[in-house]
Amino acid sequence: MEEVDSALVDNVKSFVAGGFGGVCAVLTGHPFDLTKVLLQTHQYNTSREAIMGTLKSHGPLGFYKGVTSPLLGVTPMFAVSFWGYDVGKRLVQALRKEPPEQPLSIQEISAAGFFSAIPTTLIAAPFERVKVVMQVTKSDISFLSTVRQIYREGGIRSILKVRQPL
Asked: What's the total number of domains in the chain?
């Protein structure tokens, strides 16, 4: 019973640590991502113009336009990624001949990382789609309104669509 409790605690720790890491990553990286999207959609010619234009139009909080989608998507994505990596490591350790206390080889670590990408991708794609639509929309629109708009325009397939030509 103690082994089950320990495994559950390890899973929860991985999940929570990943979720917290996801929040930190989003809050740190979103202003850069927004600037990149503004440049990619030809709304500005330079990074400086995009930054100054965002400040002028929306103030400092404008750099977090569309942040709800990545927070809702990246937080569970990181949580699942950390959890999947730990599960992948345990699977690799169970399949190998070496004792569990021996460190994993680079190939085994890579296999565990590959395993973690499978469930992570299923979570990431729809949230990325909503985020990009929110970032390029001229008006301030909520996460749920954006999901509804995308759904109206193309159904569930449109929400799951990862790449959209500009």
From this structure: 2
Q: Does 41 lie in the same domain as 24? A: yes
Q: Last residue of some domain: 64, 81, 101? A: 64
Rounded to 5°, the CA angle 68-139-122 comes to 35
Is residue 23 within 8 Å of 16, Cβ to Cβ?
A: no
Q: Are residues 55 and 123 in the same domain?
A: no
Instruction: Provide the Cα torsion 150, 156, 162, 166; round to 10°.
Output: -40
- Whether residue 19 contacts residue 75, with contact meaning beta carbons closer than 8 Å, is answered with yes
CA of 7: how far to CAs of 2, 11, 86, in Å? 9, 6, 10
The per-residue pLDDT string of the chain (166 residues; one tens digit each, 9 = 90 and over) reads 666 678 789 889 999 999 999 999 999 999 999 999 999 999 999 999 999 999 999 999 999 998 988 898 788 889 999 999 999 999 999 999 888 889 999 999 999 999 998 888 877 778 888 888 888 887 778 888 999 999 999 888 887 775 544 4
Q: Range of 35's domain? A: 1-64
Cβ–Cβ < 8 Å for 132, 164: yes
